[in-house]
Input
Amino acid sequence: MRFWRWAALGAMIMSAGSVAQLRQPAASLAPPTGAPAASAATVPATGTAGLASLDKISVDSWLDGYLPYALRTADIPGAVVVVVKDGQILTARGFGYADLAKRTPVDPDRTLFRPGSVSKLSIWTAVMQQVEQGKVDLDKDVNTYLDFKIPARDGQPVTMRQLMTHTGGFEETGKSIIFYDPAHIQSLGDYLKGSMPKRIFAPGTTPAYSNWGTALAGYIVQRTSGEKLEDYLDAHVFAPIGMKNTSFRQPLPANLAGQMAVGYPRLGEPSPGFEYLGPWPAGSQSASGTDMGRFMIAQLDNGRGLLQPATAQMMHASPIDKVNPLSLVPPLNRMELGFFETNVNGREVIGHLGDTEAFHTSLHLFMKDRVGLYASFNSPGKAGAVQNLRTQLFMDFADRYFPDVSPLAGRVDARTSADHVRMMAGVWEASRRWQTSYFSMLNLLGQFKIEVGPKGELVVPGLLGPNGRPREWVEIAPFLWRDRNGHDRLAAKVVDGQVVRWSMDFFSPFEVMDRVPSGRSSAWILPALYGSLLVMLLTVIAWPVGWWNRRRFKAELALSGTPLRTARASKVMALATLLVMAGWGTAVALILKSPSYLTGSLDPFLWLLQIAGIIVFVGTALVTGWNLWTAFKDGSRWTRKLWAVLLFLAALLMLYVAHTFGLMALTVQY
Output
């Protein structure tokens, strides 16, 4: 799916799936007319069935009416779009600017964009070459190929097939994911050995998208081939099909550096520069539009120049059996070997998406139609508009040239559907998540809720349509819903009469939603957490307020001796708790501001927060418990007893949250 979801981190916190809007005058963008690539072949129309004939004139006319306005309104400086058909580049177009300050237009032949996780397809192609040569076995323990060991989970190892389908069971990783200072670059082996994530799922059971897993696969290619991975990709993936303007190297080689488009991760701010990636095989590719066209052509032509036809077929449409299930949430889209299905309008489509901080990309291959669509953008745009834009570009392209002529699917009766929705209701969390470190707090803030609508309909407030409103779901088969106004389907997995998992076509191949255990549910934890923070804040505020009132009215303290000491100690610990939580808030704010803070620069602060957290959270529970005991022992007024109870419960809740969500994990690996 996506290489890195900085927008999604914000979405977790906001539960709305959008990036904070930073305005930039729209007039500063004013993209020039899309420029066709000089090398793009003009392919005559062949009468492809559909509302429009799929030829260069038609596609260029459609893009000219679609993208310039979309880029302006979304505040995106530039884009490249390539369409291939029947073994040729049908059209390659540049829109807007590769460099906004210099007004350099996007050249689809030369301008390099960063396709993010679409880069993974080059790595997976290299893996399949090694499989073809007998150097890698898809179902063998990957430890066979490594110079370090990945621990078993439930007695089972990780296989290459599981890496390619994101079912190795790894939790999310974020450290050194993206940065701008080349001084932080590590060798691939050192990065992998120093950032190994925990395995939180049994292998082969749960899709959980993993950049670390892809980087591991790249390292295996390096070891089995005996070549540096960058050299291997140049010689065996790019050169055979003429991809002369493509590289995984960081920084770019001198002959390509001047062709790199400028990325704009935040509107109205200067570009922070070239993005360096820690797990670089997962997304460090830089490529021109026409080079990506050549890559699509090779894949559509049964791997021509890269793989034997049988190997390409295995990669694109792996057989359905116990090792390769139809889908982990049938009948939704599934993972192939590296590619994932993006089927639309009854067509067999495979592809990939990719995101860095600045660049956002999609690639889709209509396999039986021998048509490919590639689009890349150099900014997330206004309020993360690029996410909807790239999705709708693909959907609208499919509707225009490959319309769905089949009748609308069936409908489940209203009473049965309402029963099914009630079974779905509750709180859910994504399988792609942090679970053993303090980043798991983001999961708490980003859990999905499913609600029953006023007419018994399915409502998922966190899944908005392109119009910014909750999608209208219609149940078309038992536990299978379709967006009334779009193509997406949502399906649930039912075990023993209980809904245990659900997903959507858009992300089902690499991520599912599982029901949140009650002990981690935001439904009660967040209100209790906010209430606890309020109790502590009022406790701290009451301290100076009480002092001022006693001074003003010359009143005596109502407490003395041990009760006075415990009350004061409770206030001190409440203040310490608030300061630690404020520290965590500061850390999160810095991380959301820039991924550069994930290179280790915050490690001393994170260690301080965790050590202080153990002292403060445990200490506050003990001190407030002592205060509660003295309040009841010394015969205090009922108001002091009540507040002592509330303060003690607040301290226990804070300790529970800190323990459950890793605020005392004592690690700087995440």
Summary: Residues 1-50 have pLDDT under 50 and may be disordered. The CA atoms of residues 62 and 397 lie 9 Å apart. The longest strand covers residues 88-99. The radius of gyration is 27 Å.
